[in-house]
């Protein structure tokens, strides 16, 4: 190489940049963005050029990436961008940063995840940089984060989702709020409206922010509990509805789309308490979304999780209470969500009309929601919209119940479910909408009760419960109407009647009013006020005695319709007989429940139809007048007849045609043996005597009566007809087997009576005789039961036969008009006081002789002597004087005015019974029949008698014959002689009806029948009366029990709701503290970043000048003692002090000038030597500017934004020299943090110059930096810790007491602790 020729070595820009200090020389340039140019203007393109250049360098050089990481370059850039004008951040600047993100995600560099984390922490997740930028820049940023950024799966390994979520929520809370927070919110917005985009723009940007936050949640590892906790804290502590609605939508979306992770996290983080807090919102949108959140949680939870979450505090009941807080808040949208929760078919959007139809696969999953919906509907004020919601709910319940047996069973298992459904009905509907709602309620009740009766063991109890609860509902409604009427009357009286002041004379005789007020004279309104007590309380509410109301009648008919439809379905399956279905094992539950229902209704129904004994007395009275009837039990004659007709038809099939033993059923109801069959006998007798009365008084249209097919004349004695099975006859004759659903509801009582009167001239209808025959032959193996039934039936038939015989004789003897007497009797019944026949059987005048033992023994007792105690008294005789002296045997040709007492059953003297005014007569006005009105007069008495008693006489003769072994010892004469053998011998000689009647009319037979058979009949009647009272009392008892259960449940709900409220208040306080602590640490972290950035700025500026020369030559350089310590804990290093100031004591001595000159020369020579060595060494190294083998910077050297959730935090003091600075010490899973409370008065009183010399005001130490932990004494108390870290420094904290010290030590790494804390000493 020639002289004066030098080699030219080309260096890359990276080597050149490295030679002047590295990439950090760029950072001070960002601090000069706001410096004015020569012309006084500011170039706003410099920032984009710098960022573009820097990004290009980073993308092209691994060394630059390493330098950016070690120098925390993005922290520095974010620091300068935050301080400079936001006009510098334009679209080119943002695009450069976005391209850098894409580069970091796609390259496979070791340091790119750490760089990406720094980039997001210090720039993208720093709202102070972006909030004041143009709207387009902000929209571009959050659009990118929500769309392109979240599509990179690799980035989730670099960014901790919890950190991004917490920072995003903090940004939404303090920066991008929609409504400025006011009380009761305790935080203040950091950015005012003047510096923010418009409301619509903020709403849109929030939506993008929540989109990428959603991706951060679902991309995180584990169950996302920490992420969900942060969101729940936000929802629980923000009180402005507009500021939480979109975040709530996010949680609902997460719960619906990712239930596998979100549901367990939601449960463990007590998300339900947040839901119930949101339900208090006055905005319906918030409440609807909160309900959606609850619905998705329940829908995707296991049965155990749902039970553990909802049952301990009865949260379903609390749900109804919360929704009831808002008036007129129950809309169709709310109902749709509640119904979705009921069936766990929760949909995403909120709709007014459900699109999907209910099918058989829809199941009731949360049955308690029925109570919630019903309670809300009941408590809401009536309006048109509420009627629509009620109708929709009932229609949905009908569809659910109709489509699934399981759904019906679930509803029936709800405690007091009838109360919730009946609460929706209207006892006294006032418009068409209320009528429609009530119709739907009873349609649903029909479906449920039919299921209970047909499929559920013990379903009859459900029926009784329903009747009882309905009775309580009607009683309560009547009570409220009565009270309202009383109050209205009081108001009217006060308004209409004048008040007359009365002067009270005083001792001086003056007319001054007493106490300065006028005395009001008593008026008519005083009587109205007497119903109130002196304490102005309402009269007490009590459930009255059971009576059938229109709603009870409606319920009865609807259930009967359902039962009869099943029977008709069996009938349609020809040729299989109906008895095969009744006695099939699959239908045993159905039959047993129906028998129980008949048993429960029998006695009350007998009374409702007039009572067996009063009806029999009226049907056989000599005066042909209707005498005292039983209480109507709230039923009109038409309704009583309709119900009796249907009950008897069911009794024909399910009791008489049923071959099962009823002993188990009787034990279930604690009835005596044979009680059900005796109830059936009372029903049959009541029906028969009612038919007899209808025929006697002709209260029906004869045109509807079917003509008998057999001849009216009796068959010849020699031609005895073949005996047909009574059950077959009953099945053929019963109305249910001869009617269709269309003609069940008869319009008038005439048509109704005509439907079961087949032979008006006969004393008993054929079906009645067949029923009696089936009853007496059913339990022939039970001797006592058979004897009792036979005697009762013999007496019943004998009374009717003899009374008819008397009527025939009377009508044939003289043509007497009885219409006037009947009309007067009827009018007296209608207008006068009708006596209630509640007397004992012993008080019957006409039967006094046969009930003498009962009268003597039980005159003062409500109990009756059982028939079994008198079964063996057949040989005992009674004095003939007990009979009336004028009663003689009746001769066929001479009986014109004397009749046997057995033919007439008058009621006792009116003075012996209580009187009650009846609201309606059992039998309306209609003319009595004249048996000869349409018959030729030539017909003699024998023919009439044969025609009238043609069917009953053979029946009675068969009883005498087939049960002679029982009746012989019972029916004895006045001297103990057996009457039946001689009577049977006479009857066998002839089949004449007259002979049988004459036998019954004889004096001996009358005495025996009255004494023995009549006694059995009276006991049968008395048993029915006792059971009737017991049945009505049981209904009232069950109604009271239902009220008690409801009150107890309500008290339990209130108690548990109070407990839940206390827990929710505690949770709210904890979440408020967590949120405040989180906000505090985010703020402290940003202050820490700012402090670190400031120090790095000073460091980089110092590196750009020669520190040694500056120290020796410049008089403006200041130094301070470094906290670094040597092995002997001596602080022997000085570092630059950019905040230093001069003072008199810091002037150096002049005697040291010579020494300083020597030091300057020495240092200059050493520096030149080092430069030469370094330059020469580079010539021997390969030119590898893209060294990929540089060591990776460990994550501990990178200051993270947030180190996960706080495990423990406590108040502490940072001990620094003589100062104790109050702050908060927090411990996460990986780091220890301390943040000074800058609002503390002690900190505010510090000299600002001192703050620069206090380290760790916002400090953070990773666990892997901690080398030792030692206990220290502070103020002579063992309550401090000194922690030594890897950079040869230490920090000391003081706590409140020693227990906190132990907690802190237990959470810190187990290094240098010692055995005092129970932890081994490790390194």
List the SSEs and their pairings:
Elements: H1 13-19, H2 27-30, H3 46-60, H4 62-70, H5 73-83, H6 91-106, H7 112-124, H8 127-130, H9 135-146, H10 161-174, H11 199-219, H12 225-237, H13 241-257, H14 259-268, H15 271-278, H16 284-299, H17 303-310, H18 315-324, H19 332-343, H20 368-379, H21 384-403, H22 405-412, H23 417-422, H24 432-455, H25 459-496, E1 501-502, E2 519-520, H26 525-529, H27 550-572, H28 578-582, H29 588-608, H30 612-619, H31 637-656, H32 663-668, H33 675-697, H34 726-733, H35 749-756, H36 766-778, H37 783-813, H38 819-831, E3 834-835, H39 852-858, E4 915-916, H40 941-948, H41 952-962, H42 964-967, H43 980-989, H44 993-1001, H45 1003-1103, H46 1107-1113, E5 1119-1121, E6 1134-1136, H47 1153-1179, E7 1208-1216, E8 1219-1227, E9 1231-1236, H48 1241-1244, H49 1248-1251, E10 1258-1262, E11 1266-1274, E12 1277-1285, E13 1290-1294, H50 1298-1307
Antiparallel strand pairs: 1-2, 3-4, 5-6, 7-8, 7-13, 8-9, 9-10, 11-12, 12-13
Helix pairs in contact: 3-4, 3-6, 5-7, 9-11, 10-11, 10-12, 11-13, 12-13, 12-14, 12-15, 12-45, 13-16, 15-16, 16-19, 18-20, 19-20, 21-22, 21-24, 22-24, 24-25, 24-27, 25-29, 25-45, 27-31, 29-31, 29-33, 29-45, 30-33, 31-33, 33-36, 34-36, 36-37, 37-40, 37-41, 37-45
| Structural class based on helices, strands and sheet pairing | mainly alpha
What is the helix fraction of residues, given as a range?
40-55%
Summarize model confidence as the mean pLDDT. Answer: 76
How would you write the strand order of the largest sheet?
A: 10-9-8-7-13-12-11
DSSP helical segment count: 50
CA-CA gap between termini: 62 Å
Give the CA-based shape: rod-shaped
**Strand-residue fraction?**
under 5%
Count of DSSP strands: 13
Low-confidence stretches: 500-513, 515-526, 707-720, 815-938, 1108-1115, 1176-1203, 1314-1319
Please outline the major beta sheet.
7 strands, antiparallel
Query: Which value, in Å, is the CA radius of gyration?
Result: 51 Å
């Amino acid at each position: 190489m020639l002289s004066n020729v030098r080699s030219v070595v080309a260096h890359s820009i990276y080597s050149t940049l490295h030679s002047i200090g590295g990439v950090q020389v760029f950072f001070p340039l960002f601090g000069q963005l706001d410096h004015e140019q020569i012309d006084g203007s500011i170039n706003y393109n410099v920032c984009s050029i710098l960022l573009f250049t820097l990004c290009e360098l980073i993308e092209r050089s691994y060394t630059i990436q390493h330098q950016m990481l070690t120098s925390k370059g993005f922290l520095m850039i974010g620091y300068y961008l935050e301080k400079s004008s936001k006009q510098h951040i334009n679209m080119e600047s943002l695009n450069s940063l976005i391209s850098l993100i894409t580069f970091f995600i796609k390259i496979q560099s070791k340091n790119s995840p750490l760089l990406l984390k720094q980039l997001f922490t210090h720039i993208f997740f720093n709202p102070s940089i972006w909030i004041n930028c143009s709207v387009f820049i902000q929209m571009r940023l959050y659009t990118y984060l929500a769309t392109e950024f979240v599509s990179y799966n690799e980035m989730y390994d670099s960014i901790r989702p919890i950190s991004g979520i917490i920072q995003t929520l903090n940004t939404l809370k303090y920066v991008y709020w929609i409504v400025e927070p006011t009380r009761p919110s305790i935080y203040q917005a950091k950015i005012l409206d003047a510096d923010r985009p418009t409301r619509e723009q903020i709403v849109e940007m929030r939506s993008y922010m929540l989109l990428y936050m959603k991706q951060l949640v679902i991309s995180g590892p584990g169950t996302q509990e920490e992420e969900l906790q942060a969101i729940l804290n936000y929802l629980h502590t923000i009180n402005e509805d507009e500021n939480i609605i979109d975040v709530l939508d996010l949680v609902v979306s997460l719960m619906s789309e990712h239930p596998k992770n979100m549901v367990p996290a939601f449960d463990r983080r007590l998300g339900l308490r947040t839901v119930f807090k949101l339900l208090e919102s006055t905005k319906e949108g918030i409440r609807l979304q909160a309900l959606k959140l609850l619905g998705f949680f329940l829908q995707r939870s296991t049965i155990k999780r749902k039970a553990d979450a909802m049952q301990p505090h009865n949260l379903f009941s609390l749900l109804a209470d919360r929704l009831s807080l808002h008036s007129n808040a129950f809309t169709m949208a709310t109902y749709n969500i509640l119904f979705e929760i009921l069936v766990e078919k929760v949909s995403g959007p909120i709709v007014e009309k459900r699109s999907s139809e209910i099918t058989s696969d829809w199941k009731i999953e949360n049955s308690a929601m029925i109570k919630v919906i019903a309670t809300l509907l009941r408590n809401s004020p009536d309006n048109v919209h509420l009627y629509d919601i009620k109708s929709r709910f009932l229609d949905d319940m009908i569809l659910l119940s109709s489509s699934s047996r399981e759904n019906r069973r679930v509803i029936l298992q709800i405690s007091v479910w009838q109360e919730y459904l009946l609460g929706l009905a209207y006892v006294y509907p006032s418009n068409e909408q209320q009528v429609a709602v009530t119709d739907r309620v009873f349609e649903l009740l029909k479906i449920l009760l039919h299921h209970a009766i047909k499929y559920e063991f013990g379903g009859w109890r459900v029926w009784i419960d329903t009747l009882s609860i309905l009775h309580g509902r009607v009683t309560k409604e009547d009570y409220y109407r009565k009270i309202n009427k009383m109050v209205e009357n009081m108001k009217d009286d006060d308004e209409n009647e004048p008040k007359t002041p009365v002067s009270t004379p005083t001792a001086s005789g003056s007319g001054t009013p007493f106490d300065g007020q006028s005395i009001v004279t008593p008026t008519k309104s005083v009587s109205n006020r007497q119903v109130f007590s002196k304490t102005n309380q309402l009269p007490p509410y009590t459930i009255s005695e059971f009576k059938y109301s229109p709603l009870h009648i409606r319920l009865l008919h609807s259930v009967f319709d359902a039962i009869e439809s099943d029977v008709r379905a069996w009938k349609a399956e020809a040729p299989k007989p109906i008895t095969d279905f009744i006695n099939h094992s699959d239908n045993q539950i159905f039959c047993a429940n129906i028998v129980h229902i008949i048993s429960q209704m029998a006695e009350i129904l007998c009374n409702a139809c007039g009572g067996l004994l009063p009806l029999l007395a009226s049907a056989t009275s000599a005066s042909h007048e209707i005498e005292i009837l039983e209480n109507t039990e709230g039923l009109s004659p038409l309704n009583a007849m309709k119900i009796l007709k249907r009950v008897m038809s069911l009794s024909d099939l399910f009791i008489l045609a049923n071959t099962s033993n009823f002993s188990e059923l009787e034990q279930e109801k604690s009835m005596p043996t044979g009680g059900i069959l005796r109830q059936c006998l009372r029903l049959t007798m009541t029906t028969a005597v009612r038919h007899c009365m209808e025929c006697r008084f002709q209260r029906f249209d004869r045109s509807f009566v079917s003509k008998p097919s057999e001849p009216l004349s009796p068959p010849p004695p020699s031609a005895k007809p073949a005996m047909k099975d009574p059950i077959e006859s009953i099945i053929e004759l019963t109305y249910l087997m001869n009617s269709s659903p269309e003609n069940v509801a008869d319009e008038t009582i005439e048509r109704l009576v005509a439907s079961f009167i087949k032979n008006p001239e006969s004393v008993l209808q054929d079906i009645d005789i067949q029923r009696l025959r089936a009853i007496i032959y059913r339990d022939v193996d039970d001797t006592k039961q058979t004897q009792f039934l036979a005697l009762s039936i013999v007496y019943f038939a004998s009374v009717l036969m003899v009374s008819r015989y008397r009527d025939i004789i009377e009508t044939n003897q003289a043509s007497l008009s009885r219409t006037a007497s009947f009309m007067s009797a009827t009018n007296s019944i209608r207008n006068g006081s009708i006596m209630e026949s509640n007397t004992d059987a012993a008080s019957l005048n006409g039967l006094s002789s046969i009930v003498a033992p009962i009268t003597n023994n039980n005159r003062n007792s409500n109990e009756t002597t059982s028939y079994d105690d008198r079964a063996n008294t057949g040989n005992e005789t009674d004095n003939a004087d007990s009979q009336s002296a004028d009663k003689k045997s009746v001769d066929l040709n001479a009986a014109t005015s004397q009749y046997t007492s057995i033919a007439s059953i008058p009621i006792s003297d009116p003075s012996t019974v209580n009187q009650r005014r009846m609201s309606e007569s059992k039998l309306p006005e209609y003319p009595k029949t004249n048996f000869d009105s349409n018959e030729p007069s030539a017909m003699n008495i024998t023919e009439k008698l044969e025609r009238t008693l043609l069917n009953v006489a053979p029946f009675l003769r068969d009883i005498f014959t087939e049960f002679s072994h029982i009746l012989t010892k019972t029916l004895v004469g006045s001297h103990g002689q057996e009457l039946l053998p001689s009577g049977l011998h006479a009857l066998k000689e002839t089949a004449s009806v007259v002979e049988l009647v004459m036998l019954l009319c004889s004096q001996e037979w009358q005495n025996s029948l009255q004494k023995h058979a009549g006694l059995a009949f009276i006991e049968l009647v008395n048993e029915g009366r006792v059971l009737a009272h017991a049945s009505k009392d049981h209904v009232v008892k069950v109604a009271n029990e239902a009220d008690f259960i409801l009150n107890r449940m309500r008290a339990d709900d209130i108690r548990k709701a109070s407990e839940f409220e206390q827990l929710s208040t505690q949770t709210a306080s904890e979440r408020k503290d967590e949120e405040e602590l989180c906000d505090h640490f985010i703020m402290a972290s940003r202050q820490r970043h700012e402090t670190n950035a400031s120090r790095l700025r000073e460091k980089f500026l110092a590196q750009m000048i020669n520190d040694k020369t500056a120290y020796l030559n410049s008089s403006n350089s200041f130094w301070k003692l470094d906290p670094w310590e040597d092995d002997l804990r001596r602080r022997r290093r000085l570092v630059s002090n950019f905040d230093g100031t001069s003072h008199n004591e810091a002037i150096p001595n002049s005697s040291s000038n010579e020494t300083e000159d020597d030091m300057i020369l020495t240092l200059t020579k050493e520096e030149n030597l080092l430069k030469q060595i370094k330059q020469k060494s580079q010539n021997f190294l390969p030119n590898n500017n893209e060294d990929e083998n540089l060591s990776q910077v460990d994550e501990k050297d990178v200051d993270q934004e947030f180190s996960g959730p706080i495990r423990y935090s406590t108040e502490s003091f940072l001990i620094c020299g003589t100062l104790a600075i109050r702050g908060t010490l927090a411990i996460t899973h990986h780091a220890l943090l301390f943040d000074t409370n800058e609002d503390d008065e002690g900190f505010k009183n510090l000299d600002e110059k001192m703050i620069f010399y206090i380290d760790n005001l916002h400090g953070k130490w990773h666990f892997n930096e901690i080398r030792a932990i030692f206990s220290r004494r502070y103020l002579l108390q063992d309550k401090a810790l000194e922690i030594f870290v890897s950079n040869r420094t230490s920090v000391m904290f003081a706590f409140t007491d020693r227990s906190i010290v132990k907690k802190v030590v237990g959470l810190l790494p187990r290094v240098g602790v010692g055995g005092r804390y129970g932890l081994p000493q490790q390194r």
